[in-house]
Structure formats: C-alpha cells, structure tokens
Give the backbone structure.
Amino acid sequence: MSDHSNAPVAPVEAYEPPYYAAVFTAVRTPAQSGYSETNERMEELVKDIPGYLGMDSAQTPGGLGISVAYFRDADALTQWRTNTEHRAAQERGRAEWYESYTLHVARVERSHGFTRGEVPKSPKTG
C-alpha cells in the first residue's frame, strides 16, 4: 500500500488456520491526487479492527499493485468491508484512482513460514 522504503521487508507471519485473506489487485489511473494520504489513513484505520492480522503489499514496475489483508475471522473482514471511511475511500477509488481492480476473498486452510537462519516454528495463533 504505502511506500515504506525504510521499513524492514518481511511478509506477514503465518497464523494458525483458518483465517481469511482479502486480495486486492489494482491498476491505478494517472490521477492520484489524495491517494497517498487516503491510503495511509486506511492503513491506520484497519489496524483498529479486532481480528486484523496484517497486510502484505507489492507494486510491479508496470503499475499492477497487490495488497493482501489478513483477518482472523469473517466478522473482522465484514467490519472492515463495512467501515464508513473505508467505503468512502472505495467510492473515491472507483471515481478517481483505479483503472481496474479485482478483490478475492479466501479462507486460508494452510499456512506456514520460513526465515533463513531461524528454527522453523508453528504458525501464530493471532
């Protein structure tokens, strides 16, 4: 989502399934006025949702952006989907910032992780 070029690069940890992943893939328009500020606000806001586990984001040089938000349960995901500020940002995104996008919501059935130099560990129970 936002450009955290000084932040350490690491994926969201593996959690004990089941949990949910919302995969948002988008191509943005050239008109990006206000996008960064709104994006930062959404990143702050989603952290207040009980059951929010984290987010992974990436941007290709060609302009395809992918964000994956992880939620402990369907209720947490619904709370985020129906948040008033988030809904307003979605509307503005369709009107100004996105050429196209897709959203896929999936229930995670299996999860594990790897970090070089560390002993393998079980998923977190978040």
Remarks:
- Residues 10 and 106 are 22 Å apart (CA to CA).
- The chain has a mean pLDDT of 91.
